[in-house]
Amino acid sequence: MFNKSIILSLLALFVIAPAAHAEVKLIAIGSLDGKIGDRSTETSAPLENGVAGNLLGGLGSGLAYAGNNTFIAIPDRGPNAVSYNSAVSDTASYINRFQTIQLELVPSIDLSALPFTLTPSLIDTTLLLSNQPLYYGSGAGLGVPSGVPALNSKNKNYFTGRSDNFDPSQISTYANNARFDPEGVRVSNSGEQIFISDEYGPYIYEFNRNTGKRMRVFNLPNKFAVSNLSPVSDTEISGNTSGRVANKGMEGLAISPNGKTLFGILQSPLLQDGGTNGAYTRIVKIDIATGATQEYAYQLDNIGTAAKPKYPTVSEILAINDSEFLVDERDGKGLGDGSKAAFKKIYYINLTNAQEVSNITGESNLVGKGVSKTLFLDVVAALTQYGIKQEDIPAKLEGLAFGKDVKINGVEKHTLFIANDNDFLGTVGPDTYHSTSVDNPNKFFVFGVDSSDLPGFVAQKIKGKN
Question: How far, CA to CA in Å, does 94 sit from each of 47, 162, 236?
Fold first, then answer.
């Protein structure tokens, strides 16, 4: 005898899931120069690697809508693509921050161009800090100076990207570590707080949007932490059998439109779930009021072969409503890598009937328990359709955010913004596909989405500061 409720639930999923051939069209492209400084001039002094401490880069690590044409963009742990000291994984004392930017869309005058013109502009830079003391590395034996920022004062202790800024006697989720690698960001419905997820801990922190001060720590279960810490990523990976993979922690972050729930997603599976060779990463649902968590499995595509599996990574999760999401899966190929972009896809998922897996460990035990997913947008195909070469598609398309609706030929469209992390490299090349160096700016791609392709879409209502 069939269970009627199960049948109805499955039918509901088929009805609301958007089609893979969605009317999702590129409508605008914009960029911010990757060779200029941001508005935090007090941090402009050169870092340990010689790069300016306020270089405007990495903006696509996380992108969040903040109302009207305003967005919050976060760089990650700083310009560590410049080699200088492998003992700290080439990380520098870059002070973590978020950038407030305007992304203004207006109809294009040139009818032969894309239907909209996107004009990005930098409005403000806010440094991230704690009023309480943080643990910084001394630099002893590593060939670097102390990790304590010169800007620190009694009540301002800044978070930085330096990989040795941790207390070795604590597990990696110790909240007083100064090292911080922001990867996902969302704005509260009040408009006064921002939530940021990180790869080092992994952490999820709440900050005051006006001051950059940390207000709250969301504690993740210990299974996500590693106990043997090292400033060298490979050493940290080899020294642990459980917890997040180094530099592949809580990569993406979503907030439900009602503002009550956060959803973090790991870039790669936990070590106990197979690590980078595993097929199932985890989504963590967090009740903002209580901090209570639930977990769901997300199955990665195999972009290798059956005999030799290979998996992409997850860069972002974005809420359509309180139970439906878009997830960004990608390779690391494209501009900045000296290769051709091949796999950058956005999938639709629904957690309504997904199995909770917080008490399940191991890749084999997660088989068959992953949330169902449907292809929503093949980004490489969509961009090459408009004449963008695969080698010119940014390698790290990581930030996803919905913006204001627009009208195209009288039809209302949702806007989906995709941003790149340029690794703080304002120019790249020459390489196999570029005979000379080429600009590598902070890039923003905007897609128009018909309401029929996201029938369950609910816009987040953000009040206060825009």
Answer: 7, 7, 21
To the question of pTM greater than 0.85 for the whole model, the response is yes
Cβ atoms 99, 124 nearer than 8 A: yes
User: What's the rounded Cα separation, in Å, for the pair 129 and 316?
Assistant: 24
* Ranges of residues in the chain whose predicted pLDDT is under 50: 1-17, 19-21, 465-466
What's the pLDDT tens digit per position in 216-264? Answer: 999 999 999 999 999 999 999 999 999 999 999 999 999 999 999 999 9
